[in-house]
Amino acid sequence: MTVGSGQVYVVTGGCGFLGSHLVRMLLEHEKNISEIRVFDLHLDESLRTLSNDRVKVRLISGDISRLEDVREALRGSHLVIHTASLVDVWGRVPASKITEVNVTGTMNVLQACKEEEVQYLVYTSSMEVVGPNIHGDHFYRGNEDTEYRIYHKEPYPLSKAKAEKLVLEANGAKIKGGKLLYTCSLRPTGIYGEGHELMKQFHRQGLRTGRCVFRAIPPAIEHGRVYVGNVAWMHLLAARQLQIHPSTLGGQVYFCYDSSPYKSYEDFNMEFLSACGFKIIGSRPLVPYFLLYLLALLNALMQWLLHGFFTYAPILNPYTLAVASTTFTVQTDKAEKHFGYQPLYAWEEAKKRTITWVKSLEVSRKDLKDVGEKGNYCCN
Ligand SMILES: NC(=O)C1=CN([C@@H]2O[C@H](COP(=O)(O)OP(=O)(O)OC[C@H]3O[C@@H](n4cnc5c(N)ncnc54)[C@H](O)[C@@H]3O)[C@@H](O)[C@H]2O)C=CC1
Ligand SMILES: C[C@H](CCCC(C)(C)O)[C@H]1CC[C@H]2[C@@H]3[C@H](O)CC4=CC(=O)CC[C@]4(C)[C@H]3CC[C@]12C
Q1: Using one digit for the tens of pLDDT, what is the confidence trace for 217-240?
Q2: Which stretch of DSSP H or E encloses residue 329?
Q3: Catalytic residue selected from 120, 156, 182, 341
């Protein structure tokens, strides 16, 4: 295999949902690179096979919260896309662990950039650094400059906000050798697409309830969603343009957006699940909000009581209920203006790809059924 003398990119969290799409996107669309280093705690060996005669995909097993691991991975590289994170709003992992990975991990990436002379860093942030807040203030078609009461209490959004602040403050810092570090931050709304773990969970849950989804959130509450391929594409463009126009992109934040429709979280999921015969029951929530809130509180209480015995972490808790019940949608063209971003995938294509993947979940479950699992499967 002959590998050229292009740039070396490091993708932290490169084996995750977004990270693995990003690695494939870089391989297909970024002609200027000769090596992609995929840094992750848990390696996905299948990515290794993506190496071709132009680009080598190197898998590096490491822990972002260990500076030495990060330094080694960054040595001799040109640019880092830092997506590694613990994404947990359910209390599956202790808050201290979330901080260690998301905040200390990001400090390590910054430190390693400085020590290993890496000039460019693109950080994957989240809409959660802005909101929704616990006061239930709606963020309707907002942009990067929209004023909003930002209030963080939960470990995940708190950690993403701290990490983003560190990343932005580091823009323009001197690195070893005297050059400057340039950083920018991308804030996806709820990402969906092939490999989305939460969609798998909703699919499994729907099978258990006879392909019925019981409406819990009013349909008028809109939740911003963005296709994973477009989020990856935006990272690629930001990485490219950060090097060409560092003074424009450096220190900036960009919401990730595309042409996915504004809908409630449940109605949006139905765009895919309905292709597998799922039905949403009720045009309004079947359970009054206060009951749902009580249930969410009960779940939180159970989590607290069972703590130490096992991890009780259901999807519904007061925080996820608040997020799902508060409108958060973005409408902006900052990324287009600053680095020419336009979605690579139109909504129809993103939907088609996601439906194909959701249907493939049915096939794999059907295989299970054929070897003895109970169930009722059909898909149109
Ligand atoms: N999933 C979503 O809807 C959204 C995600 N984001 C952000 O996008 C990024 C990617 O998220 P997803 O792909 O959904 O998550 P994911 O959990 O699929 O991927 C994260 C990756 O980070 C790796 N990782 C975790 N701890 C690590 C450690 N100590 N050292 C090295 N690697 C470690 C994981 O193994 C995983 O492969 C994250 O930064 C997340 O905060 C932002 C907005 C929405
Ligand atoms: C789990 C929530 C849906 C619960 C529906 C109910 C109440 C009927 O059971 C999800 C609703 C909104 C999601 C979050 C949102 O998309 C923003 C996010 C950004 C991130 O950076 C990480 C993931 C998440 C927090 C995402 C998590 C699931 C929801 C809370």
Answers
A1: 999 999 999 999 999 999 999 999
A2: strand 328-330
A3: 156
Residue nearest to atom 14 of ligand 2 (CA): 190
Instruction: Give the C-alpha distances (Å, rounded to integers) separating 115 from 13, 93, 109, 112, 174.
Output: 21, 31, 10, 5, 10
Bridge partners of 291, per DSSP, are: none
Angle between helices 228-244 and 17-29 in degrees, nearest 10: 60
Q: How many residues does the chain have?
A: 380
Q: Is 41 exposed, middle or buried (0-12, 13-18, 19+ CB in 10 A)?
A: middle
Ligand having the closest approach to the CA of 89: 2
Kindly report the CATH class assigned to 7-195+225-260+329-345. Answer: alpha beta
CA 188: distance to chain centroid? 7
Q: At which residue do the structure tokens 């239930």 appear?
A: 136
Residue nearest to atom 17 of ligand 2 (CA): 190
Q: Give the helix/strand (H/E) hosting 79.
A: strand 79-82
Complex-level ipTM? 0.98
Question: Can you tell me the distance from the alpha carbon of 227 to that of 353, in angstroms, rounded to the nearest whole number?
Answer: 10
Query: CA–CA separation, 40 vs 62, rounded Å?
Result: 6
Å from CA of 71 to ligand 2 middle: 33
**Rounded Cα gap, residues 262 and 243, in angstroms:** 33
For 316-370, write each residue's pLDDT tens digit: 999 999 999 999 999 999 999 999 999 999 999 999 999 999 999 987 666 555 5
Flag whether the pTM goes above 0.90. Answer: yes
The domain limits of the chain are 7-195+225-260+329-345
> In angstroms, rounded to a whole number, what is the distance separating the alpha carbons of residues 284 and 298?
23
Index of the ligand 2 atom closest to the CA of residue 316: 9
Catalytic residue flag (residue 156): yes
